Amino acid sequence: MQLLKNIVTNGLMVLGLSFGLMVSSTAMEHVKPTAQKISKAEAEKVEATKYLAEQGVAKWQYVLSVRYRLGSGVPKDREKHLYWLNKAIDQDYIFAQLEMGQIYEAGDFVRQNKSTAKEWYGKACDGGYVYGCQSYRRLNEQGY
């Protein structure tokens, strides 16, 4: 009986150690990806985003505009940022409308104009975006 107990105990320990080694080696692959894997994955995301934006999908036009604003996977490019942002705005994409309001309010890329910002916030609010309503109300209370 003791022999059977030792065999089972040792077998479970071997299984446990094997499982632990498998999990740790898998985790190491995910924790330390190579720069090449990261850049290839990022390039694939950018290409997919560009493809969908070019197909006229407002959400991806907006996402691409943000990538150009931040330089995320693409070089920073003011003109391309505004181009794709306006494409999304043409389709009444509320997040793009809100961002245009933020651009005018802060004076990023354009001359600061809080009245114009308020108009864009109003459009985002009309589309149902609460933050657009809050921003509209805030500028309205400031007299714009």
Automatic annotation (TrEMBL):
Keyword Transmembrane: yes
Ranges annotated as spanning the membrane: 7-28
A Pfam short name: Sel1
UniProt-listed InterPro entries: Sel1-like (IPR006597), Sel1_AlgK (IPR050767), TPR-like_helical_dom_sf (IPR011990)
Swiss-Prot/TrEMBL keywords: Membrane, Plasmid, Transmembrane, Transmembrane helix
Protein name in the entry: Sel1 repeat family protein
